[in-house]
Amino acid sequence: MPTDTLPLHTRPARDIGQSVPVAVPADADPATVSSAVQAIEKALALLVHAQQGAVLAQADLIAEIATGLLAPSSELLEDRVQRMRTLRQVFGEEDWLSSEDLNALQANPPRSKSQPASDWKRRGRIYSVSRGGREYFARYQFDAMYEPLPIIRAILDAFGEVADPWVLAAWFHYPNAWIVGADGTPVAPKDALDRGNDVVRAASKRRTSYVA
């Protein structure tokens, strides 16, 4: 996994005896890294100052500090709150179909209710999001016969892989500066699917954010 090297300290230089480089995954959330660094610093301080015979006595304190790695920072909490607001808006303002819906809308529905949506997704022809333990597909990905629009595959290829499908859903949903209307105002990719070159170019220049 690609990593970046981060000095293991966050305190002023006058308080630091030595800096230790730590390998951090390149895709790590900066907010979680900050929390982790602070917790590791505290644990190291205990270990360094503890006498050899007192290490066991410090075990409970070290364990308590270690659990601090799981405590989200304020930045992380703010980020997750913003994500949830975006998710609710995107889901509430779009028409979403389940696998069962798509199955029922086919001229000759496959016996398996998960088909043909599952196969289309596996082949990169459409994307889905998960909400409440169920999988949903945005209606704008399909034509009048509920077959995937060819442009969707091209967009997904240009957009690239994402760990959080809601990033992709938000990208489709919100106005994009790379796609403009006749009056010069940004247009949401979902509303410009008939402009293949424009939406594919916008997908290739996407910003890695789910916030419009």
What does this structure look like?
The chain is an alpha+beta fold and 212 residues long. It has two domains: 3-71, no CATH class; 80-204, no CATH class. The chain has helices at 30-49, 59-67, 74-93, 99-104, 117-122, 150-159, 165-173, 196-204, and strands at 3-7, 21-25, 96-98, 129-131, 134-138, 176-180, 186-187. A three-stranded antiparallel beta sheet has the order 3-5-4. It has a two-stranded antiparallel sheet with strand order 1-2. Strands 6-7 form a two-stranded antiparallel sheet. Helix 1 (30-49) packs antiparallel against helix 2 (59-67) and helix 6 packs parallel to helix 8. Residues 208-212 have low confidence and may be disordered.
Short characterization:
This protein has 212 residues and is α+β, with helices and mostly antiparallel strands. The protein has eight helices and seven strands, in the order ββαααβααββααββα.
Rg of Cα set? 24 Å
Order of helices and strands: EEHHHEHHEEHHEEH
Query: What composes the largest sheet?
Result: 3 strands, antiparallel
Domain unit count: 2
Number of strands: 7
> End-to-end distance, in Å?
29 Å
If strands are numbered along the chain, what order do they take across the biggest sheet? 3-5-4
Overall shape: it is: elongated
